[in-house]
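Checklist before submission:
- one chain only
- standard amino acids only
- sequence pasted in full

Submission:
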Amino acid sequence: MGTEQTRLVVVRGNSGTGKSSVAAGIRERFGRGLALVGQDNLRRIVLRERDRPGAANIGLIDLTARYALDAGYHVVVEGILYADHYGEMLTRLRADHRGPTHAYYLHVPFEQTLLRHATKPIAHEVGEAQLRDWYRELDLLPGGVETVIGADSTLPRTVDRIMLDTGLPVSPRSTSSHPFSHPFVRAGQGVSGASRSAWTVPGRPHRQPGAARRDDARLSLPVRVRERYDRDRRGRDLLCRGRMALGAP
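Returned file contents:
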């Protein structure tokens, strides 16, 4: 299955650990030729079924990943993917894949996943009790095949690490425009004041720590939510400029 050049990447973790954002970041860095196989999309959207042992989405994830690899795509499989439900399927994928396979488990404490969940579109549908029921502490696959990435790893750092580990090349179109591709330097080097210690990108104006935290929070949002957030923010900026032009308070 696949070729010696294709890469298979598996990203697992509890709800709210940033799996979808990491997968989207890898796609943005690489460009075309990389397939995203999301458990939520196939299970909840395509099949609309519950997560249970032997469910149909397990086979569909397996079939989709295999088809894409055989077509010459690199593949990122991402989802909660409980070890007791999906472990056997993922083990077969790894064994059958002719190229390198890399697996990662994003480990984030429950309290932090709860905060991240509040930014999701389904936040009003799924409460704390259900999230706690879903949460499994370090639900690792057998055999020590996964690299555990902790909550202290930022989204850009996690994407950088996976790109480096897997050897996936960065698309030339992404290197000039994507925030992950720029070298980071510490703002205000040689200038006193703790407020000058935020990380920033060369050639861009200095951002205060609060703004940097808001940017980090924005990058942790799913792609669709982030796009809606950006549209809303642009709309608020235009409204404020219009009010200022009219002399409104």
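Reviewer check: Residues 175-211 have pLDDT under 50 and may be disordered.
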